[in-house]
Amino acid sequence: MTDGTKILIVDDENEIREMMCNWFRQRGYQVGEASNGKSALELLREDTFNVAFVDLRMPGMDGLEVLAGIKEIDPSVYVIIMTGHASIESAITSIKKGAYDYLVKPFSLEQAETIVKTIVRYQELEAENIMLRQQLEDRYSFIQIVGKSPQMKEVLEIVDNIADTNVTVLIQGASGTGKEVIAHLIHSKSNRRTKPFVAANCAAIPRELLESELFGHEKGAFTGAFYTKKGRFEVANEGTLFLDEVGAMSLDAQIHFLRVLQEREFRRVGGTSLIKIDVRIIAASNKNLEDEVKKGTFREDLFYRLNVIPLNLPNLKERKEDIPLLIEFFLKKYGTESGRGKKELAPETAELMQEYDWPGNVRELENIVERLVILSKGELITPDRLPGTIKKSSKSYYYVFTPDKNLSEIEKQYILAVLQHNNWNISKSAKVLAVERMTLYNKMKRYRIKRAKSVV
């Protein structure tokens, strides 16, 4: 498999140049040739090459000058210096100036082809390494699905039922609800679990580059395309492709995407060969795609292609019973990762966080817990460490104890805070304070605590 690799042979000896050109052409490579450095650089300005074999000693420009010119025109070209006058000094100089390798004449044509195959394999490994790094970075996500609410139990039940199939899934929910975490979970439970999981955020990729990112491109397909690149579909072959914020796709890109879903094949940008793929698609959107279809910004036929199995993730404020579990999980996680050790919330802190609506959902909760763990010096996290948005939005009472007040002042202010929180209901307040009603009345009398009269 030559994979479209293009080779340039630069040598002033006609016999060597023709022999190398014929060898590589017979093996399916695209080959260009030049008898001197000036002609070689002119070719590079007009066409694109992956590999260049350059003779060191040539009339006019020598091989090192040609090497410098090639790197200036297209730094991605792999240059192999050839010479019949080998020396350690010339080899070291060539490598320092950017040559990939160094061949001493006479060399076998098999040896030259081995170098080309190594370069092609290296480029493939680069794409695979990107995918593997992404998998390693995201692997922790599998254990972040925490919850006992009916809504999350229903989502997880559907995941268990459809994970080991090839059915397309559409996950909808607000930002921060865990759409990518659920996509990871589906992949980890599927028969594709040993194959790649590749993610692409359609909203984060510039529209003019989206098709290149998804489908790849051939070298020279557009300005800046210095080498052939595999797209996310190709890298995810036999695995799972997660397309986040799919609603951000342009209508033109949606047409191309729909065709790939239907035909299971595509062409790289600037390419002519059809590439067949076997990829499971999991799409996600923080927009309601049915509404987008009505607005005319999302294709109806694509929506139905994606919406085979719909999963709707609830906002965190709709599953309040999961908040304490999530807090406990993130306290342990970041306490361990940061080396801060065990941390826990003061009751007042926990109540404030329970009552907050969490517009940023689980992601916001995680970020705030991480901040609390880092900023709190002691084991107990008190309310004064919370962001002002949480304290202002909550109706809870809390009191920060400071060492500059005596015990009577602290007790007076704490009783007043409890009474205000319970709308001056004596029975409820006494229960919270764990005292009898009469005891509370006596303390109110002692501290001269009275409910202020309303002013109309």
Topology:
Layout: E1 6-10, H1 14-26, E2 30-34, H2 37-46, E3 51-55, H3 63-73, E4 78-83, H4 88-96, E5 101-104, H5 109-138, H6 150-162, E6 169-172, H7 179-189, E7 197-201, H8 207-215, H9 232-235, E8 240-244, H10 251-263, E9 265-266, E10 275-276, E11 280-285, H11 289-295, H12 300-306, E12 309-312, H13 323-338, E13 344-345, H14 347-355, H15 361-375, E14 380-381, H16 388-393, H17 407-421, H18 426-433, H19 437-446
Parallel strand pairs: 1-2, 1-3, 3-4, 4-5, 6-11, 6-12, 7-8, 8-11, 13-14
Antiparallel strand pairs: 9-10
Task: Provide key terms for this protein.
single chain, 456 residues, alpha/beta, Rossmann fold, Helicase, Ruva Protein, domain 3, 4 domains, 5-stranded parallel beta sheet, elongated
